[in-house]
Each structure stands twice: as C-alpha cells, then as structure tokens.
Amino acid sequence: MATTDLKQDTFAEIVNAEGIVFVDFWAAWCGPCRAFAPIFESASEQHPDIVFGKVDTEAERGLASEFRITSIPTLMVFRDGILVYAQPGALARPQLDQLIQGARDLDMDDVRMQVAERTANQPS
C-alpha cells in the first residue's frame, strides 16, 4: 500500500481508527524529508496492514500548528487513536523497522490505563 496524503478534513478519521497509523509531517523544501520519503514509502509497501500517512506542512498549516510541529520531518505514531510516539528527525530503515515492531508489540490495555491515569491526575 502506498502512503496516504492526510488533509485537515481526513486526518482525525484516519488516526482515530483502530490499528496503527504512522504520520510523516514533511515539506518539499526539506532535505531530510526528501531523504526519509523513500524509506517511509518502502515501509508502507512492506506493511500493508499499517496506514502510512503524510502531512505536507506547507499545504496543511493548520495540522502542523495543531500538533506543534516545529521541526521536520516529524514522525508520529498512533495506535487505536492514541498518540504513542512523536519525534522530529529522519529515521534510517533499521530504526523505522524497530519502531514499527514496537508499535505492533504495544500492550494497548496498559497504554489506555496510563492515559486514563494521566487524564485523572490533570488539574481541572
């Protein structure tokens, strides 16, 4: 499966669905983004059960602002609608493979429990 261009009107529906979603925030003028693009595309073809989405930060300034993107590329990973990873910087293929496996191996019951605890402990 090829990567999917994510837009303001499709982003929430895709990342909030069940399953794993990798999101690459990028821009055409960004050298590291261009270097990471074929790695990301190749992973999308090797893992058809995972959604690999791309957000062009120039075209989707609202999304970039909403997620406080200050450095690109920034990679985010959502699983079952929960943000489980966010970090700027291009990854080499072995690092991306390790991150994919880590996302697959997550104990989502534990993750949901941690999210609930964090939410309960936040001041009102």
From TrEMBL:
Residue ranges of every copy of the Thioredoxin domain listed in the record: 1-105
UniProt keyword Disulfide bond present: yes
Family matches, as Pfam families: Thioredoxin
Gene3D superfamilies noted in UniProt: Glutaredoxin
UniProt keyword annotations, A-Z: Disulfide bond
Membrane-spanning residues: none
Superkingdom of this protein's organism: Bacteria
Protein name (Swiss-Prot/TrEMBL): Thioredoxin
Organism: Gulosibacter molinativorax
